[in-house]
């Protein structure tokens, strides 16, 4: 069971996906943020033993989403590559293979802070790289969660998580979408990423992802 | 000028002291080049027993100008003790006119002294296990230690039971390879298993010397005026403030021990509020205060200028505080050995009477006090056991030994196996450790680009890069602490006075302008910059008290058993001593609403509330083993129906709380079965959170998570990830990793005390289950209900849990 939750935001319908991405049917676009490809590799390069497999797992999840939704474009809201070490031959080779599987897909990367340090992905990957904001009416797509003067923002960077509390002192920490008038946040997509606890302001809508579903929380 | 063998006698008679028989025994043994372990209560004269033995055996009256080369290595568990030890060792040298030097090498040693030691080590070097390992990583280490004859391990009981002790075992093995006849003497307080303490220190054998134990020890209790019917967990005991102040008033100098730093801060503050005239006469001492502050407190104590010091275990060890007249202990001491150790702080000199006064923080601690006195009288003292096969310490040691001149695997294996902790190290475990430091693990392909230690064609293994070498040197040690920030006064154009350190997690909860209590002062947070929190003085009356996640000691089996004895006696109407008399009404209420636990029954209570279904069970196994039992029972019940429970534990028992209704009574008998214990505990670990917590520590020691350079540059940030993240990645992508295995094993042996759990379960088989349905929580249950620290175990589908919590939220929102 893998069910999406459609929401209305600024007159658009967005599907919040349990696998921490947004599908935008009107634009036939898949939106993800904070993929952090090559993070494990950069740890290893600095003598920290992290097992291999996180990059492959991340790409496999991306594959599954692209295959199950009618996508014309994939838009990455920053931090696609974690660090310079992501340019290692190994990592690039798996990226190349992944890209070949989706030859006709348009891939756009809005540069994030990690991308600036890591350097743009090689041209051979066929990824259109640009600085924020990327205006795609009615939204401004950004990495940094800063308000835009004229457009509501969809952004990444924060890796938002929310703590659910229930009866019998139950407590669960889950990645979340935060939908707000000015700035909305996507959860981090990458496998090997941590999370930042968010405290939603009044009026913000919180949706947690877990157990193969997306859940709307009572405001 | 006396001849060397008379040195000791001469020095003793010059001070009109007479050596004790055990001191002569040690002198004679060292004269015969024998090793051993000397145990005696604090203040019995252990230091001079070995130190004068060394001088008798090795020192010659001053001749040449050059002082003697390194002869004695003196290992101390705490940096704070080093300076005092140095002073104590120096005195006979001066008075006997011996040309020996005494030096200190620890994390606090300044660069000038380090440079001097780099040229030539002093005749006697006082150091910690961590600094010793660092000295062994120097390229010329073998030459440095060429003249070494004796290693003294002070306070061995403090090292024996932990990984620092394991690290020391490995360092001693290295020294013994260089000097096969090296003498080693351990100094220890009394333990329940001295032969083990001896064997771990000296796998090759040695003698056990019993020192003087004739100290008289008095344990009494400050009885509260009124007994609270509902004991409140986490209670700081401030109700007793007035009585404690009276006691302090009546004596010239006292130590007030607390169990946590936060409690020490609170008590200090409260005492000053109650007695403003004591400002300047009472002081605070705990491990997070700046070094200079602690030094001042220790000096003032010695000079007898302080009326009282509120302290934590930071003042448990060593340092001779002759003037201390009284010792008060706020809350439980958790064990008999610790009680003796703290009591020994008063009357710290041979032949003087020691007295400790217990101050209960809740009414049930009165029973503990009575129990402690009975256990002490019966001589039931706890044992400490060395950990075994710590792969994280081994991995760290391999990289350390690869610094400097490098190692040869064959030689190093022999050395490692000569230690007690690693004597059963299997070939495949050794190979795993070598592979791990070489390329990350047994699966060659799992860790591309990763390398820490390189095997060179000449057979030597050396560290791969200078950068890594620096990082390794910085990370040596097995004490794992939470990320901490330095606390400084704010002043324009630069930092002001350094106050100490606080945990990052605590500061993270505060915003600029919020107030906190630290070092006995109320402070206002100004800003946080990098790894420093700046504060200024505040006049606020209320403030958050800095909290540290110090280890919470479990109640020892010895004390727990003694406690059940007291309760058992109470059910038979016997209330011995003033404490039991005082607590009698509370115990009466417990037996009226439910029952008292006894030697032959196991008390279980059930309760339904708006929160859900509660089960309370009282195995009296100490908080660690209770946690293990709680997980085990929750897991077994969950096989009948999927379950999410919140678990609260204390030293007496535990609570399981489920949001769904559970028929605990019918599940219990089967859940308490002794069958498949290990498998079920392992399975319960996967559903709970304990293995993850343990992995945190292991990851840091093994170098997986790097604490960061002092004044870390931003660039190191990108290699910092939380150990929780590492844990998940390892579990998913390299499940066979031995460090994960170790995390699991350590949860079993240390967190859950699996052997104790096993014994407990066996014991519980023979107890009669006394099942009571509560109308309302009784005194024992209440203590658990209000326990703030909770763990979770869940076997429900994640989606089901979320659905319920989302519905709970919905209901709450509708009520608004």
Poorly predicted residue ranges of chain A: none
Number of domains as seen in the coordinates of chain B: 5
Into how many domains do the coordinates of chain A divide?
A: 1
Biggest interface goes to: A-B, 45 and 59 residues
What's the CATH C level of chain A?
Answer: Alpha Beta
Portion of residues within helices of chain B: 40-55%
Average of the residue pLDDT scores of chain A: 90
State the low-pLDDT regions of chain B, or none: 442-446, 706-721
Q: Enumerate the strands of the largest sheet of chain A in spatial order, edge to edge or round the barrel.
A: 1-2-3-4-5-6-7
Coarse shape of chain B: globular
Structure overview:
The complex is a heterodimer of chains A (219) and B (816). Chain A is α/β, with parallel strands linked by helices and 219 residues long. Chain A has one domain: Purple Acid Phosphatase, chain A, domain 2 (4-Layer Sandwich), CATH 3.60.21. Chain A is built from four helices and 16 strands. In chain A, a hairpin with a 3-residue loop joins strand 2 (12-17) and strand 3 (21-24). In chain A, helix 2 (54-68) runs parallel beside helix 3 (89-101). Helix content of chain B is 43%, strand content 17%. In chain B, the strands form five sheets. In chain B, strands 3-4-2-5-6-1-7 form a seven-stranded parallel beta sheet, with helices on both faces. In chain B, strands 8-13-12-9-11-10 form a six-stranded parallel beta sheet, sandwiched between helices. A six-stranded mixed beta sheet of chain B has the order 17-16-20-19-18-21. In chain B, strand 14 and strand 15 (461-463) form a beta hairpin. Chain B is an alpha/beta fold and 816 residues long. The chains are: A alpha/beta (219), B alpha/beta (816).
Key features of this structure:
heterodimer, A: about 220 residues, alpha/beta, Purple Acid Phosphatase, chain A, domain 2, seven-stranded mixed β-sheet, five-stranded mixed β-sheet, globular, B: about 800 residues, Rossmann fold, Arc Repressor Mutant, subunit A, seven-stranded parallel β-sheet, six-stranded parallel β-sheet, 31 helices, 27 strands
């Amino acid at each position: 069971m893998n069910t999406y939750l459609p929401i209305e935001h600024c007159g658009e319908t967005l599907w919040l996906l349990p696998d921490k991405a947004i599908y935008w049917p009107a634009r036939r676009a898949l939106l993800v943020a904070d993929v952090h490809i090559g993070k494990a590799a950069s740890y290893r390069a600095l003598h920290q033993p992290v097992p291999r497999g996180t990059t492959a797992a991340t790409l496999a999840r991306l594959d599954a989403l692209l295959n199950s939704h009618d996508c014309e474009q994939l838009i990455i809201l920053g931090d696609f590559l974690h660090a310079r070490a992501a340019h290692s031959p190994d990592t690039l080779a798996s990226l190349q293979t992944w890209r070949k599987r989706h030859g006709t897909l348009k891939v756009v990367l809005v540069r994030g802070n990690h991308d600036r340090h890591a350097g743009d992905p090689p041209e051979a990957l066929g990824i259109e790289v640009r600085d924020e904001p990327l205006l795609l009416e009615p939204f401004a797509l950004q990495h940094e969660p800063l308000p835009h003067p004229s457009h509501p923002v969809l952004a990444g960077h924060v890796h938002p998580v929310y703590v659910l509390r229930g009866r019998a002192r139950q407590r669960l920490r889950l990645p979340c979408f935060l939908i707000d008038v000015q700035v909305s946040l996507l959860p981090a997509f990458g496998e090997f990423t941590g999370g930042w606890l968010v405290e939603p302001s009044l009026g913000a809508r919180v949706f947690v992802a877990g157990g193969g579903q997306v859940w709307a929380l009572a405001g | 000028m006396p001849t060397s063998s008379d040195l000791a006698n001469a020095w003793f008679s010059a001070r009109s002291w007479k050596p004790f028989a055990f001191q002569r025994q040690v002198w004679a043994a060292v004269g015969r080049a024998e090793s051993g372990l000397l145990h005696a209560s604090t203040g019995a004269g252990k230091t001079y027993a070995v130190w004068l033995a060394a001088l008798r055996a090795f020192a010659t009256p001053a001749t040449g100008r050059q002082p003697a080369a390194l002869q004695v290595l003196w290992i101390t568990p705490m940096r704070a003790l080093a300076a005092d030890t140095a002073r104590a060792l120096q005195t006979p040298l001066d008075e006997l006119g011996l040309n020996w030097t005494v030096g200190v090498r620890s994390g606090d040693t300044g660069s000038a002294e380090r440079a001097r030691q780099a040229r030539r080590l002093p005749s006697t070097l006082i150091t910690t296990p961590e600094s010793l390992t660092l000295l062994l990583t120097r390229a010329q280490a073998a030459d440095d230690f060429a003249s070494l004859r004796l290693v003294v391990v002070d306070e061995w009981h403090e090292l024996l039971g932990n990984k620092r002790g394991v690290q020391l075992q490995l360092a001693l093995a290295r020294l013994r390879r260089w000097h096969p006849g090296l003498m080693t003497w351990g100094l220890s307080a009394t333990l329940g298993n001295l032969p083990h303490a001896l064997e771990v220190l000296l796998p090759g054998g040695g003698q056990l010397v019993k020192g003087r134990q004739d100290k008289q020890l008095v344990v009494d209790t400050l009885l509260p005026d009124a007994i609270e019917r509902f004991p409140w967990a986490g209670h700081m005991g401030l109700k007793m403030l007035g009585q404690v102040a009276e006691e302090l008033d009546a004596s010239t100098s006292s130590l007030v021990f607390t169990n946590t730093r936060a409690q020490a801060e609170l008590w200090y503050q409260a005492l000053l509020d109650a007695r403003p005239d004591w400002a300047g006469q009472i002081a605070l001492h705990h491990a997070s205060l700046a070094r200079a502050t602690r030094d001042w407190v220790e000096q003032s104590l010695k000079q007898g200028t302080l009326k009282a010091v509120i302290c934590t275990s930071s003042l448990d060890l060593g340092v001779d505080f002759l003037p201390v007249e009284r010792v008060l202990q706020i809350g439980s001491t958790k064990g008999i050995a610790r009680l003796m150790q703290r009591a020994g702080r008063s009357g710290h000199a041979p032949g003087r009477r020691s007295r400790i006064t217990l101050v209960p923080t809740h009414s049930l601690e009165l029973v503990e006090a009575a129990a402690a006195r009975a256990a002490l009288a019966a001589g039931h003292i706890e044992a400490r056991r060395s950990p075994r096969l710590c792969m994280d310490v081994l991995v760290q040691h391999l990289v350390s030994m690869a610094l400097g001149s490098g190692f040869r695997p064959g030689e190093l294996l022999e050395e490692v196996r000569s230690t007690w902790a690693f004597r059963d190290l299997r070939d495949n475990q050794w190979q795993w450790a070598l592979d791990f430091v070489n390329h990350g693990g047994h699966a060659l392909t799992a860790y591309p680009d990763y390398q820490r230690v390189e095997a060179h064609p000449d057979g030597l293994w050396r560290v791969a890069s200078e950068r890594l070498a620096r990082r390794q040197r910085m990370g040596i040690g097995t004490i794992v602490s939470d990320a901490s920030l330095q606390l400084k006064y704010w002043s324009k154009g630069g930092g002001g006075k350094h106050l100490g350190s606080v945990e990052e997690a605590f500061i993270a909860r505060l915003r600029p302008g919020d107030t906190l209590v630290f070092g006995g002062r109320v402070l206002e947070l100004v800003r946080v910059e990098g790894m420093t929190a700046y504060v200024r003085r505040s006049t606020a009356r209320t403030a958050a008290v800095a909290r540290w996640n110090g280890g919470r000691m479990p109640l020892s089996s010895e004390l727990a058993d003694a406690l059940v004895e007291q309760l058992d006696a109470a059910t038979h109407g016997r209330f011995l001593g003033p404490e039991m008399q005082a607590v009698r009404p509370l115990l009466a209420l417990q037996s009226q609403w439910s029952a008292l636990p006894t030697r032959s029954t196991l008390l279980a209570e059930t309760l339904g509330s708006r929160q859900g279904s509660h089960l309370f069970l009282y195995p009296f196994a100490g908080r660690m083993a209770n946690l293990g039992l709680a997980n085990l029972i929750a897991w077994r019940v969950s096989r009948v129906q999927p379950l999410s429970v919140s678990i609260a534990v204390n030293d007496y028992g535990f609570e399981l709380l489920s949001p769904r209704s559970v028929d605990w009574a019918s599940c219990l008998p089967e859940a308490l079965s002794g069958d498949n214990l290990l498998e079920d505990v392992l399975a319960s670990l996967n559903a709970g959170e304990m293995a993850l917590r343990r992995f945190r520590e292991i990851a840091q020691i093994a170098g997986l998570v790097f604490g960061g350079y002092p004044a870390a540059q931003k660039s190191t940030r990108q290699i910092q990830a939380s150990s929780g993240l590492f844990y998940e990645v390892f579990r998913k992508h390299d499940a066979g990793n031995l460090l994960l295995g170790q995390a699991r094993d350590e949860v079993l042996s240390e967190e859950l005390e699996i052997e104790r759990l096993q014994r407990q379960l066996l014991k519980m088989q023979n107890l009669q289950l006394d099942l009571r349905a509560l109308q309302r929580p009784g005194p024992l249950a209440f203590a658990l209900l209000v326990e703030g620290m909770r763990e979770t175990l869940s076997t429900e589908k994640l989606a089901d849990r979320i659905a319920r919590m989302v519905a709970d939220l919905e209901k709450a929102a509708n009520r608004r």
